[in-house]
Amino acid sequence: MAKRDREAFRSAIGRQNLAPLWDVLDALVTPEPRSACRPALWRYQEVRPALMESGALISAKEAVRRVLVLENPGMPGQSRITTSLYAGLQLILPGEVAPAHRHTQSALRFVIEGEGAYTAVSGEKTLMREGDFVITPSWAWHDHGNESDRPMVWMDGLDIPLVQFLDASFAENYPEDRHPLERREGDSLARYGSGLLPLDHQPAGASSPVFNYPYARTREALETMRRGEEWDPCHGLKLRYVNPENGDFAMPTMGTFMQLLPKGFAGADYRSSDAMVFNVVEGKGRTRIGDEVFDWAARDVFVVPSWHHHRHEADEDAVLFSFSDRPVQQKLGLWREDRGNR
Ligand code: GTQ
Fold it and tell me: Residues 263-314: pLDDT tens digits?
């Protein structure tokens, strides 16, 4: 009786665009994150052939960005690697140009293979090498080109799903393939990324004014610091990329990190509310996520969903780059971590 009344009530109010909360409350307000995102690993050796095949199928110019999207297996067709973030592998062949455009989505590039292709951001070119972390801030003009004689591959990380959720996507193409160059190569790194700032510098945007964080410097910092033997039980030696203007994350929507796991490292259990995308820069090892084991090697990408227990193990010295939506969660007071054991 009551059930029939409730069903009739539900369909009656549905005509007024109303719905009873009591049907959905448990699914909306969950005691813990309940994510469609699943743990996953992409082995570079296994995906590289498809990436190279895409190079023969379409040019960078025609594709605008020739990218194979890393689709989380729990969210097929949605162009997301985690619930809030997008990632893809971008290929640019010798002589190609990916034409200039800009969009409100922020992008990061993490270089996987090759040397000597460039990204130009707001009129400054930066040549890229393996392990470099490069930023394209929201609404900055950018084009990519490869003047080397080898293919170049990098991982793109963008806040596409987040911007989509907020209905805040704007984009436009530049009338020419390349945006004109306005500054010399290396200018931003010298000006803002050397422990110095110009005397009268005023912070202008939400992203770091440094837009290439070269791997050589990052690696050297890790190598020098490791001598202190101060290992975090969960993370080994983990550093955060920062905006030198204010010590905040380098980008407003995506936090980026680099960590060293020494040979033989067997990490303690960890989880946090930000799903993490990892890119293996050096070494071999594995990450146990819940009951699954993901064996990884250099250039592989893997993802740990929100609030999933995981621990890292390294068979040789390993270096891992990672990114997540942590800056957003922290600014909103939502971020949590748990270093406890299961
Ligand atoms: O390089 O601008 O992987 O706009 C996806 C969207 C790369 C880029 C992607 C983009 C870009």
Answer: 999 999 999 999 999 999 999 999 999 999 999 999 999 999 999 999 999 9
Q: Which amino acid is at 326?
A: R
Q: Which atom number of ligand 1 is nearest to the Cα of residue 101?
A: 2
CATH number at residue 289: 2.60.120.10
Closest by Cα among 311, 307, 339 to 324: 307
Ligand 1 atom nearest to 171, measured from its CA: 4
For residue 342, give the amino acid letter.
R
Domain hosting 284: range is 33-338
171-173, strands of its sheet edge to edge? 124-127, 117-121, 142-146, 97-103, 171-173
- To the question of pTM greater than 0.70 for the whole model, the response is yes
Q: How many structural domains compose the chain? A: 1
Ligand 1 in reach of 158 Cβ (< 6 A): yes
> Alpha helix (H) ranges present in 204-325?
215-225
Residues 6 or more apart whose CB falls under 8 angstroms from that of 142 comprise 100, 101, 102, 107, 119, 120, 121, 122, 136, 179
Other beta carbons less than 10 A from residue 198's beta carbon: 9
Indicate whether residue 129 lines ligand 1 (CB < 6 A).
no
Mutate which of 89, 90, 106 for ligand 1 pocket (most atoms within 8 A of beta carbon): 90
Residue 287 pairs in a beta bridge with 294, 312
